[in-house]
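Quick one:
INPUT:
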């Protein structure tokens, strides 16, 4: 993988390799209970073993006089880093394994490049438990220290987005039946980063359990992780995958819920939200565009003054505001589109993702993008056809009510986790495609009576009545 010896420090080396060490405690508490009755039935393998903390603790369950034979016949560990393999051999010796046998079964090998085929010739099936390397393709392609990893994303792996996906597809192609993977939570909740992979992988495997950590698990990374338990299907087919999920929150609270992954929605968790968006998309929906760019302002200078908040200028905890004189066309466009989207939770209860009014929140008429567009900045929304200010206010209420309803019902699983923090809730990111799709369900051509009815339904927080209302308008 990466030539990490040339990197400046340990953090850079870890980033270039896409690897993070796993605590023995994670194995003991969450993985061992699921495998302890099966120790004699499998060859226990970790193809990205690091120091061996996901397999070697199995030896504690084996009588000391039988450990070496068990290790020889049942355990194989690999890592691309010589240092990790040296440490792994040392750890095996501490469990009572002789150095010669440890060296035979713990090897330096690049298993992203190819699978160790000799494992398939052994007399027992393989059970793969691992914390694979994970590093996003977008990061890999932008940094010289990681560009050599691009070789893994060619040929059959073209279109995948992370190293862990390459690892899991290698297991699929080599017909492994039982897998336990420590994964980034974007496996469940990610959209473009995971759609292709989930569709291809979950055609062949069922998830039968998932443990999701809403707290930082590794010392050197804030990557949000889950532990996935997978079993290969007897017949490859796309079908709904339902399984029990456990969430462990920062305060230690444990919650359980049933997850249902639907192939119609690319097996993404929280698909009930997507089902709503698909079912209730308006026949002629509002067209939504984003961003007021500096180029547009410069092309439409004139005599009408507007105050613009510059989303690219954030100084001393506050966005810069500037006054611009624009022509009547742009003046009207800015002032007749009063809404912006906050795509990232701030961590405060009044700072959750959703639609808001620019003038009320930002003390400006519009939001200028003077530099690059960023999805996490406040973003001005422009609607076509033009709708009244009153209807935009109803749209804001409608949008935020539905968003909060689904956040409560689905524990925000249809959103992407942004950052774990000490906030009173887990901070989430709302994608711009999700914003557009939810706005597309808004029945903007309501008459005055219907507007009053919808307003009352929202004020009374009656979700079933909203469904009835939308169905009535479509009939």
């Amino acid at each position: 993988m990466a030539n990490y010896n040339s990197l400046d420090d340990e953090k850079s080396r870890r980033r270039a390799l896409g690897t993070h060490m796993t605590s023995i405690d994670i194995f003991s508490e969450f993985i061992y209970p699921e495998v302890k009755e099966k120790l004699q039935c499998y060859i226990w393998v970790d193809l990205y073993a690091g120091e061996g903390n996901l397999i070697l603790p199995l030896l504690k369950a084996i009588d000391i006089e039988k450990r070496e034979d068990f290790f020889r016949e049942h355990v194989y560990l690999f890592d691309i880093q010589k240092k990790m393999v040296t440490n792994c051999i040392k750890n095996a010796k501490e469990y009572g394994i002789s150095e010669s046998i440890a060296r035979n079964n713990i090897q330096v090998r690049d298993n992203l490049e190819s699978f160790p085929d000799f494992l398939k010739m052994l007399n027992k099936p393989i059970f793969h438990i691992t914390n694979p390397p994970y590093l996003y393709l977008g990061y890999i392609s932008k940094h010289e220290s990681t560009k050599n990893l691009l070789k893994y994303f060619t040929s059959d792996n073209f279109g995948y987005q992370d190293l862990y996906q390459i690892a899991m597809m290698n297991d699929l192609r080599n017909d492994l039946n039982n897998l336990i993977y420590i994964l980034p939570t974007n496996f469940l909740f990610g959209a473009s980063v995971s759609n292709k992979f989930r569709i291809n992988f979950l055609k062949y495997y069922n998830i039968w359990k998932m443990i999701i950590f809403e707290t930082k698990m590794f010392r050197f990374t804030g990557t949000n992780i889950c532990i996935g338990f997978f079993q290969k299907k007897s017949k490859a087919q796309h079908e709904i995958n339902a399984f029990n999920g456990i969430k462990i929150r920062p305060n230690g609270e444990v919650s359980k819920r049933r997850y249902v992954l639907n192939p119609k929605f690319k097996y993404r968790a929280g698909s009930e939200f997507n089902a709503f968006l698909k079912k209730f998309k308006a026949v002629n929906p509002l067209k939504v565009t984003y961003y007021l760019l500096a180029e547009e302002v410069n092309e439409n200078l004139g005599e009408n003054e507007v105050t613009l908040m510059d989303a690219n200028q954030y100084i001393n905890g506050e966005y810069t505001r500037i006054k611009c004189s624009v022509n009547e066309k742009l003046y009207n466009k800015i002032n007749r589109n009063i809404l912006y989207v906050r795509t990232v939770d701030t961590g405060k209860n009044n700072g959750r993702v959703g639609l808001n009014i620019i003038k009320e929140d930002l003390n400006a008429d519009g939001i200028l993008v003077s530099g690059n567009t960023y999805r996490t900045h406040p973003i001005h929304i422009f609607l076509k056809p033009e709708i009244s200010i009153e209807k935009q206010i109803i749209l804001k209420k409608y949008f935020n009510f539905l968003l909060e309803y689904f956040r409560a019902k689905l524990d925000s699983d249809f959103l992407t986790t942004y950052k774990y923090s000490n906030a009173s809730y887990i901070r989430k990111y709302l994608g711009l495609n999700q914003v557009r799709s939810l706005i597309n369900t808004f029945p903007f051509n309501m008459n005055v009576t219907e507007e009053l009815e919808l307003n009352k339904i929202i004020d009374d927080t009656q979700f079933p009545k909203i469904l009835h209302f939308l169905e009535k308008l479509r009939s």
